[in-house]
């Protein structure tokens, strides 16, 4: 009789348990360096975060490796016993930059400054480096994009020359660390982190792995030596910081430098700040001899001269700073079936809504008029707090009433014609009083019709 020598199903071997075959899931061969998404094969675009060229081969798992516990160098303490003394700060010499950082630069802090090309990041940081050098601190400015001669020409133009300001043009991380050991600076500026590469990581400069390696090394050096490091970061087409998202998590402060190419005004905003508030805004103006601080930018957004019909002052809020912004309106009769609505610096949809509320709730006819609404100085003011100022400016031009320059308006309009309160209204009114505005028309008027009557009766020029 013939016997079958094959092993019976469900028995024998470590791959069988309880008579049932269990398949071990294959280890993922590729992983996304941005979000950790895994894939059994290589793909050009991550299926989770939709980033291109971030899927790399994963390291082979080693089941035998385990993290062994170690004796900590310092024991854990109750949170109530931690010293609450404020971390010492060093003034950079640029007051608006210190305002955004929360009062100055903290030793050992890693600061990331991003912005569009040509907005003035290098000019700002060169000014910060020069003023820090004038305070007696040695500064190392590493330019991975320009030669020392090019940086020197800009420094001569902006007056940022000092013997304690050292320049180096390097793209290799090891050489930058060598300069740090030789110069022993109190402040390190690297322009930019996407153009520096490390020999310990494969790939060209700017790739996610390179940016992660360079940033983590510089941040480690900053923490070990209490050396503040300012990194310049490139941005993508949609305004996000280029490179892995981990870069923004590693640093202590993330600032964004922004501005309109059509105007000289520049704003620096804190998007993340471990040492202070993350809603501060610094104001600068680009001039022929460099970048200039604007501690009180109210004059930039106001026109000068006698009051004219069609103008009204609104109080905008940039971070925690209240700024007066002048809203101007012009209305021209037209015979076109669809009158024009041209808006500059404001939200076009809100302007259209305000015009509809004006006509239906306050009796100001604009349906047969081409209406032009703009802000002075090119500033963008898109929050609902501009509604009442827009309505007063348009109504003032249509009715021929000029609003006095000592009056400001703050309020949001509802479709029912009522004036609603806005966020941080008390701060806006306090700032208006500090700047010399004797009267502020706000939600206390109740309705738009009542606000227009108050303006006509008491505040016309």
UniProtKB/TrEMBL annotation:
Gene3D superfamilies: 3.30.230.10, P-loop containing nucleotide triphosphate hydrolases. Residues 370-461 are annotated as: Lon-protease-like. Residues 86-235 form the RecA family profile domain. A motif (RadA KNRFG motif) lies at residues 272-276. Keywords: ATP-binding, DNA damage, DNA repair, DNA-binding, Hydrolase, Metal-binding, Nucleotide-binding, Stress response, Zinc, Zinc-finger. InterPro entries: AAA+_ATPase, DNA_repair_RadA, P-loop_NTPase, RecA_ATP-bd, Ribosomal_Su5_D2-typ_SF, Ribsml_uS5_D2-typ_fold_subgr, Rubredoxin_2. ATP binds at residues 115-122. The keyword Mitochondrion does not apply. It holds the Pfam family Zn_ribbon_LapB. DNA-dependent ATPase involved in processing of recombination intermediates, plays a role in repairing DNA breaks. Stimulates the branch migration of RecA-mediated strand transfer reactions, allowing the 3' invading strand to extend heteroduplex DNA faster. Binds ssDNA in the presence of ADP but not other nucleotides, has ATPase activity that is stimulated by ssDNA and various branched DNA structures, but inhibited by SSB. Does not have RecA's homology-searching function. The middle region has homology to RecA with ATPase motifs including the RadA KNRFG motif, while the C-terminus is homologous to Lon protease. Belongs to the RecA family. RadA subfamily. This is DNA repair protein RadA. It comes from Microbacterium gilvum. The gene is radA.
């Amino acid at each position: 009789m013939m016997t079958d020598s094959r092993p019976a199903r469900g028995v024998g071997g470590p791959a069988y348990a309880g008579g049932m075959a269990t398949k071990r899931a294959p280890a993922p061969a590729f992983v996304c360096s941005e979000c950790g998404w895994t894939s059994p094969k290589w793909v050009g675009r991550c299926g989770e975060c939709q980033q291109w060229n971030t899927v790399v081969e994963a390291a082979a798992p080693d089941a035998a490796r385990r993290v062994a516990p170690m004796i900590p160098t310092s024991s854990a303490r109750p949170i109530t016993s931690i010293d609450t003394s404020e971390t010492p700060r060093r003034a950079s010499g640029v007051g608006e930059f210190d305002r955004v950082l929360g009062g100055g630069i903290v030793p050992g802090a890693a600061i990331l400054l991003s912005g569009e090309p040509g907005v003035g990041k290098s000019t700002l940081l060169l000014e910060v480096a020069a003023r820090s050098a004038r305070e007696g601190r040695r500064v190392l400015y590493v330019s991975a994009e320009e030669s020392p001669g090019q940086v020197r020409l800009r420094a001569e133009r902006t007056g940022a020359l000092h013997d304690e300001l050292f320049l180096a043009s390097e793209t290799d991380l090891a050489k930058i660390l060598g300069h740090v050991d030789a110069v022993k600076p109190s402040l390190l500026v690297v322009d930019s982190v996407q153009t520096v590469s490390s020999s310990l990581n494969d790939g060209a400069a700017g790739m996610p792995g390179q940016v992660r390696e360079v940033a983590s090394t510089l941040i480690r050096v900053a923490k070990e030596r209490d050396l503040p490091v300012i990194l310049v970061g490139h941005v993508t087409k949609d305004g996000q910081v280029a490179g892995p998202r981990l870069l923004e998590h590693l640093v202590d402060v993330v600032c964004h430098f922004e501005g309109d190419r059509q105007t000289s005004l520049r704003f620096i905003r804190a998007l993340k700040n471990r040492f202070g508030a993350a809603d501060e805004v610094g104001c600068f103006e680009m001039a022929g001899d460099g970048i200039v601080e604007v501690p009180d930018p109210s004059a930039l957004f106001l026109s000068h001269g006698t009051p004219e019909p069609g103008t009204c002052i609104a109080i905008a809020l940039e971070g925690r700073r209240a700024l007066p912004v002048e809203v101007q309106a012009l209305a021209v009769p037209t015979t076109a079936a669809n009158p024009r609505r041209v808006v500059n610096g404001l939200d076009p949809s809100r302007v259209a809504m305000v015009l509809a509320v004006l006509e239906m709730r306050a009796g100001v006819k604009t349906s047969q008029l081409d209406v032009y609404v703009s802000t002075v100085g090119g500033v963008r003011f898109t929050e609902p707090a501009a509604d009442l100022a827009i309505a007063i400016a348009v109504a003032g031009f249509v009715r021929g009433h000029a609003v006095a320059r000592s009056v400001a308006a703050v309020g949001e309009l509802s479709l029912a014609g009522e004036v609603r309160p806005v966020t941080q209204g008390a701060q806006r009114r306090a700032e208006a009083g500090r700047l010399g505005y004797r009267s502020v028309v706000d939600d206390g008027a109740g309705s738009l019709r009542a606000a227009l009557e108050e303006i006509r009766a008491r505040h016309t020029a």
